[in-house]
Each structure stands twice: as structure tokens, then as C-alpha cells.
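Lab notebook page, bench 4
Experiment: in silico fold of construct C2
Operator: M.H.
Input chain length: 103 residues
Purpose: comparison with the prior construct
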Amino acid sequence: MYAIIETGGKQFKVSEGDIIKVEKLGAQPDSEYSFDKVMAVVDGDDVKLGSPYLAGASVSAFVIGDGKEKKVIIYKYKPKKGFHNKKGHRQPFTSVKILSVKV
């Protein structure tokens, strides 16, 4: 059994026991979080689709903690002008473990 959820403008295919990194939620570590934007639930041959979301469906997850991804370097330069601009960015994320999928 798996579900397709939407969080942080992205869609994730999740099932029980999965550990995923989502956009930062602002939830406390070692707490539970519920995803209400469930787009589809598939259980064997039984497929339930929402338009766009399923009413009454939710996915509960355990918040493991927050972190930052590896640094991405943005480097700009213009030849023959002496212009160099170097910036770095580390995207914050929240790591969650999926506990159950409820329909």
C-alpha cells in the first residue's frame, strides 16, 4: 500500500516505513505530523484518486529532525570585465518517517 502526497510544492510516493526529506515543516523533532494533502492511495488493485485531494485521507509521520542539504555554489562572471560573484546556498529540509496511511 502506498500513497502520493503533496508538501512543499512537491509530490512524494510514500509507504509505511519510508524515510523522506521534505521542505522544512517547522515541526518539533520527535513529534508526529499529519499530511492532509493526499492525492492518491493505491492498495493492490484498489486505486483511489482525488481531484486534486482525497477527502478524509491522511498520512501520519514521525518527525526525525531538521537539517541542511549539501552546499550548491552559484558562480557568475563576465569575461574581460573583472566581474566575479560567488554565492552558496544550503536548502533546509525536515526528515520524516512515514508511520501509516489512512483512507
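Observations: The chain is about 0% helix and 65% strand. The chain has a mean pLDDT of 93.
Next step: discuss at group meeting.
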